[in-house]
Design brief:
Structural class: mainly beta
Strand content: over 45%
Strand order of the largest sheet: 2-3-9-8-5-6
Number of strands: 17
Order of helices and strands: HEEEEEEEEEEEEEEEEE
């Protein structure tokens, strides 16, 4: 009987000290000491790109509607049991914020039973044509029959819309300078024109800031209404708390268009 991925992990922890009968030796694959995952071919090459402000060299860029093909080799010195492939969005760097209503995040979770000690599979994974643009995590996991888990393989995937890959443009009119000074307790006025080459309908905007200690605060999030078109005027205010950390704070305005392309502008406020 095959056990699920998570039950096997639990059982392996409970029975780690169990003795195996001498008359039932484990098969051995020469040169392999435990479960190993090797991606031998990919239809999309690795590139180096920025994801959530950090540079990664395991980034796969693929268009919505395209198919990601991988040839994956699973090996172990014991009988193989299961592999799992998981794809989930990382739009807001794992805070999983709201997605533009016109788009649907690409999601895949698949656990498959396998056997043998050296198995190669070819996976064709279609990215939905209406998949929301943005960052995704792609992970491959493997267990052998005794519950040993391989080091997982991970990619950062950037999905883009082939018909609209341009992010919104944010033009800040207030504050008038990129860096200003305000006392704690003061009102910060924010005004900016957000434009897009295609459509902002059902997109969203977010306002966040990071204080001088590096702590991030989410201040506001609003959906952009259907029928907005290609231009939207943002006008809002924020009262800087009297207990705010003194020093240089960075404010971020993010705007997402109809297919979830994101534009970002920043300005600094020295809190006195």
């Amino acid at each position: 009987m095959k056990y699920s991925l998570y039950i096997i992990l639990l059982l392996s922890g409970l029975c780690s000290g169990c003795d195996k009968p001498d008359n039932d030796p484990e098969p051995v694959v020469p040169g392999v000491t435990g479960p190993v995952i090797t991606v031998t071919e990919k239809s999309v090459p690795d590139v180096t790109a920025s994801v959530c402000g950090v540079s990664y060299d395991n980034v796969l860029k693929i268009a919505a509607g395209a198919t990601l093909q991988m040839k994956i080799r699973f090996q172990s010195n014991r009988e193989l049991s299961q592999y799992k492939i998981d794809v989930h969005n990382n739009f807001d760097c794992h805070t999983h914020g709201r997605v533009a209503a016109a788009s649907t995040p690409w999601k895949l979770s698949e656990t498959v039973d396998i056997s043998g000690t050296d198995t190669t599979i070819t996976k064709n994974m279609a990215v939905p044509a209406d998949a929301a643009a943005g960052n995704y995590h792609f992970m491959i996991r493997l267990l052998d029959a005794t519950g040993n888990e391989a080091d997982f393989v991970e990619y950062n995937v950037i999905v883009f819309n082939p018909d609209d890959a341009e992010p919104p443009v944010i033009s800040i009119t207030e504050p008038a300078q990129d860096s200003i000074a305000l006392a704690a307790g003061s009102i910060l006025n924010i005004e900016s024109l957000i434009t897009d080459n295609k459509s902002l309908d059902n997109g969203k905007y977010e306002l966040t800031y990071t204080d001088a200690n590096g702590t991030e605060y989410k201040l506001e999030q609003k959906q952009i209404a259907a029928g907005t078109g290609t231009s939207w005027l943002l006008k809002t205010t924020y009262t800087i708390p009297t207990y705010a950390v003194k020093g240089a704070a960075t404010f971020y305005i993010k705007a997402y268009d109809a297919v979830n392309n994101v534009g970002i502008r920043t300005f600094k406020v020295s809190i006195l």
